[in-house]
Amino acid sequence: MDIETYVGRRLSYEGHLCTVRYYGPLAGSSGSWLGVEWDNVSRGKHSGKHKGEQIFICRSKSTTAASFIRPTRKADPELTVLEAIRFKYGMGSADGTSENKVVVISGKVAEEVGFDKIAREQAQLTKLRIVLIDQMVVNGIVPRGSTATSILHAQKELGKTCPNITELDIGWNTIENWSQVLEICAALPKLTTLRVGYAIEATFHFFAYPLQWLAFCVAF
């Protein structure tokens, strides 16, 4: 099944992040292709060219930053911010449930723990101040395609679960625009330092959130 495709979409394949730069046909082949630019510019095979024709332009000047991929290729599953925090900092399962299961993040397999530690670890989450969830295929505070109501609910849940976060690293994930970043920030009133790790390209509406968020120290 093809993924939902658009230019600018962030994807991860076997732990390798990329941005879609082109979606469409290629001369001499059937069907549609994704033209992607890899975050690791040495991973690709060309600079966006196909049979000598420049199909798309990469931000990088590297001659090996790009590849063509079929839309049917399975991308890595994405996590929300809270799922990533729970997984990394002790809730065991990303959704907070007690069932033992195996998940794969960025190509790495990890076994989750059960219900017996959840209460104690929930208390630990409320004490978290520095949170590093970079390179965990995080797409935002909610899954793709969520409603405004779902965003508000997720913001309340994140704020209640992790009320004391002052420093957050969400770098090298599949977040695509600054509106997604501010949806996260709005849930964390004590946040003073935010690291995004790469140049998020899309713009956002400044007045969608309080101006206090613009005082963040955003580090790359």
What can you see in these coordinates?
The chain is an alpha/beta fold and 220 residues long. The chain folds into two domains: 10-69, SH3 type barrels, CATH 2.30.30; 118-219, no CATH class. Helices cover 19% and strands 24% of the residues. The chain is built from four helices and 14 strands. The protein has helices spanning 81-89, 118-127, 148-161, 178-185, and strands spanning 10-13, 16-24, 33-38, 49-50, 53-54, 66-69, 79-80, 102-105, 108-111, 130-132, 138-140, 167-169, 193-195, 217-219. The strands form five sheets. A four-stranded antiparallel beta sheet has the order 1-2-3-6, with no helix packed on it. A four-stranded parallel beta sheet has the order 10-12-13-14, with no helix packed on it. The chain has a two-stranded antiparallel sheet with strand order 4-5. The chain starts with 9 loop residues before the first strand and ends with a strand. 31% of the residues are buried.
